[in-house]
Structure formats: C-alpha cells, structure tokens
Amino acid sequence: MLLEQKYIRNYQANGVVMIPSVVPLTEAETLLSRIDAFANSSQDAWTTDRQDGFSDRYLWPKHLWMWDFCGAHSLPQLAAELMDSTSARLYFDHIFIFIRHGATKTATPWHQDRPYWPFQGSKIASIWVALSASDEASGGLRFVSGSHSGSQMYAAKPFRNHDPDDWVSQNRDGVSMPEIDANPEEFDIVSFAVQSGDVLAFNSKTIHGALANGDPDKRRAALSIRYLGDDVTWDPRVGTDPIIQADDVALQPGDPLDGEPMFPQLWP
C-alpha cells in the first residue's frame, strides 16, 4: 500500500483529495522547464491553445519526457489505490501552463470531465500535479465535494463561445449544470492551497472549475494526468473527445480496455 488510508477515504467520500509533496520539488521544476520550452517552441498541434497563455495535451505518444513522467513517482499506483482499482491505464496528459497568468479575467466554468470522454465506468481519475503555488484567489481549482456520487451527469459544453472544438456541441448527454455560483450555500464548495509537487486527485464525475486569477504576480502551472481503472469500458459516443477515436483502437463499444495499446497499463 502506497497511500495512507485517510487519503483514500477522503477521495472515495468527497471525490477529491489533496496529497502534499508527491513529486520532489527539483523534479517538478525540471518538468516545468521542459513544458516551458515546449510552449515556447513552434510545435503547435490541433490540441494547442494559446489563449491566455498555453495549454496542450496528449503529448505522451511523441515526447519521451512526458511518457516517463506519467509513469513516474508511483503516480499510476497512487491513482489505482484511490480508485480502488487493480490497475491503472493512461488516457492522456494535459498541461496547463498558461492559465490565469497575470490576473486574466478568464474563469473555468463548473463541469464534470466524464461527459467529455469516450468511456463508461466509475474508476477514472485525474492526478493534477501542481507545478506552481496556487490557491482559490489565484485561479486554483474549486470542487463541489461529494458531487461524484450518484448517477447524475451534466452536459458537456465548450469552455468558450468561440471554441473550435465543435465535437463538444454535438454531445447531447446530460442535463444543464446547476447555477452553483448563484446559489453557493446549496453546495459544499472546497478548494486547496497547493505548492509545487503537491497533487490534487479527483474523480471524473466530480464537479470542478476555477475562478479568474486576481493575483497579477502568479501564474497557475500544472500537469493533469488522466488514469483509467479496471471497470472502464470503451464508449465512443457522439460528441466525446476525439483525440482517440474508434478507428484508433481494436475495441467495440462496451469492451474493457485490457490489451489496448492506446491505453497502456502503467500499474502494475
């Protein structure tokens, strides 16, 4: 067992947990320098977003440094233990180095991740590795504690009105997200102050978002790694993320992910 039981209990009960000092500071700094170099290069792909800074995702198939990190520091085992899974497979990495740099006014709306992704199953976790200090006031993530429980799914929607990812607009699953900020007393909203190397782990059904950054001296930099557990099955619904499509895998809808190289098993 890698984790103390208190972290597993908190994750299972609340859908989110903060685990301090998972990644050594020097290694977090090395990763951030590599991401900065990548962001400053001309390697734009269709997943690149330079609005308010820089984000990109699904680097692991082409960049060994990202592949190595996704399997390092016992992160896959950590994800498996939190999910109560016998294994952990890699879906994709997602770097956020741009978000809310220098008091931007952009906020991340409340959402669940699951409606955007081509899977069914309860054991899907994001391991958000902080690469800079952040808190709620500087654009740190906020969560609705306990929102992962139950069967309710909320409709996926583009994060910006001009979002080119029109695949999202084709998604017809779920109901409208409630007006959380208009009625905060009705929800158990939690946030965490994190330092570089800390981890936020959250369930793919946990509602989360972020305020705009009110601190002109801070940027929020992070890597979020999405891991898949042993109850996950392939479900390429219309309107789900097309980074891995039906033609890319030897799977039929409803199949488990065992043996599929597009979702490599990283633990054990």
What key attributes describe this structure?
globular; 17% helix; seven-stranded antiparallel beta sheet; Jelly Rolls; four-stranded antiparallel beta sheet; alpha+beta; 268 residues
Report on the architecture of this protein.
The structure is a single chain. It contains five helices and 13 strands. It has helices spanning 5-14, 25-39, 64-70, 75-83, 166-169, and strands spanning 16-19, 55-57, 88-96, 108-111, 119-120, 124-130, 141-144, 189-191, 199-203, 208-210, 222-228, 233-234, 265-267. Strands 1, 2, 3, 6, 9, 11 and 13 form a seven-stranded antiparallel sheet that branches. Strands 4-10-7-8 form a four-stranded antiparallel sheet, with no helix packed on it. The radius of gyration is 17 Å and the shape is globular.
Write the topology of this structure.
Layout: H1 5-14, E1 16-19, H2 25-39, E2 55-57, H3 64-70, H4 75-83, E3 88-96, E4 108-111, E5 119-120, E6 124-130, E7 141-144, H5 166-169, E8 189-191, E9 199-203, E10 208-210, E11 222-228, E12 233-234, E13 265-267
Antiparallel strand pairs: 1-9, 2-3, 3-11, 3-13, 4-10, 5-12, 6-9, 6-11, 7-8, 7-10
In short:
With 268 residues, this protein is α+β, with helices and mostly antiparallel strands. The protein has helices at residues 5-14, 25-39, 64-70, 75-83, 166-169; strands at 16-19, 55-57, 88-96, 108-111, 119-120, 124-130, 141-144, 189-191, 199-203, 208-210, 222-228, 233-234, 265-267. The longest helix has 15 residues, at 25-39.
